[in-house]
Amino acid sequence: AVVSTQSTGYKRKGADLHYVATIPLSKALIGCVIEVPTLDGRMLSIPINDIVQPGYTKRVVGEGMPVSKSKDEEKGDLVISFDIVFPTKLEVHQKSLLKQALM
């Protein structure tokens, strides 16, 4: 079962927490550090060094919900997926630079 927590932006699936981070296309291509607020008030800085493609997820082990009946304080994982924001327009020189870099 998936439980949505609208106020936090998290969805719970079992002991795992799912979070969607919104990043611009430039950061999806070159990498970035995303800040993810936790349910207990901390802020996690998660480095993203891979190229973020559609369907890409980043798993942060042990940052999910406590596993019920666990004697070792075991926790599920935080699973981050990405919403990539594309630019709405590019200037001619920007297109030229992108073409040089990507082709």
Summary keywords:
103 residues; alpha+beta; 5-stranded mixed beta sheet; 40% strand
Structure, explained:
- This protein is an alpha+beta fold.
- It contains two helices and seven strands.
- It has a five-stranded mixed β-sheet with strand order 1-2-3-7-6.
- A hairpin with a 2-residue loop joins strand 2 and strand 3.
- The longest helix is centred in the last third of the chain and has 11 residues, at 92-102.
Strands of the widest sheet, in order across it, are: 1-2-3-7-6
Rg calc: 17 Å
Distance between the termini: 44 Å
**Overall shape:** elongated
Q: Which helices and strands occur, and which strands form pairs?
A:
Elements (H helix, E strand, L loop, with lengths): L1 E4 L4 E4 L2 E9 H6 L1 E6 L5 E6 L8 E4 L17 E8 L6 H11 L1
Parallel strand pairs: 3-7
Antiparallel strand pairs: 1-2, 2-3, 4-5, 6-7
Summarize the structure.
With 103 residues, this protein is α+β, with helices and mostly antiparallel strands. The protein has helices spanning 25-30, 92-102; strands at 2-5, 10-13, 16-24, 32-37, 43-48, 57-60, 78-85.
